[in-house]
Amino acid sequence: MLETGQGHIVTIASLAGLFGTNRLIDYCASKFAAVGFDEALKNEIKVELGHNEIHATLVCPYYINTGMFDGVRSKIIPLLSPEPVVNDIVAGILTNQEQIVIPRYVYILIVLRLLVPGEVGRRIASAVGITGAMLTFKGSPSQKTLTSTTINEKSG
Q: Which residues are catalytic?
């Protein structure tokens, strides 16, 4: 891309990279890192290297109903279906959007979060269900945890 001066980089993050939430500390940390990576990369490409035809898109969806977050319950924001999310991402890439937040109305919460003190932000997150969504989390049906019982059953 640097040689040709054109291209497109897509960073898949999550709303968990913009809003830290309980019971997702490690996931939020990795997604916050992806958000920071995207911002620094855009500055490097545009400001430092002067490439205006190398585009970058940051993707921050809410929970997608793929099984990964089986058991998540949301008060206000519904779990997303994969197909519309993919369509939104592809449309965003084709139009060189710098950031795609899905659903789009969450942009309001992002702005609000920047304008209010921390405790007020946590109360808002609780009211809309962000901080309670993981309370019923079961995990992906394909992920099984090995316990000493299952290890003994397999070896004996």
A: 27
Which tokens in the block code for residue 148? 């000493």
Which residues fall within 8 angstroms of residue 95, CB to CB, at 6 or more apart?
none
Radius of gyration over every alpha carbon of the chain, rounded to an integer in angstroms: 19
SS3 56: strand
Sorted by where each starts, the structural domains of the chain and their CATH numbers stand as 7-155 (3.40.50.720)
The predicted model scores a pTM of 0.79
**What backbone phi and psi angles, to 5 degrees, belong to 26?**
-65, -40
Count CB-CB contacts under 10 A for residue 112.
Answer: 12
Q: How many residues does the structure list for the chain?
A: 156
**78: cis peptide before it, omega within 30°?**
no
- What's the helix, strand, coil split of the chain in %, to 5? 45, 15, 40
Q: φ, ψ for residue 117 (rounded to 5)?
A: -65, 160
For residues 107 and 101, the answer to whether their CB atoms sit within 8 Å is: yes
Give the pLDDT confidence of 103-141 residue by residue, as tens digits. 999 999 889 888 998 899 888 878 877 777 776 777 655
Element (H, E) at 29: helix 25-43
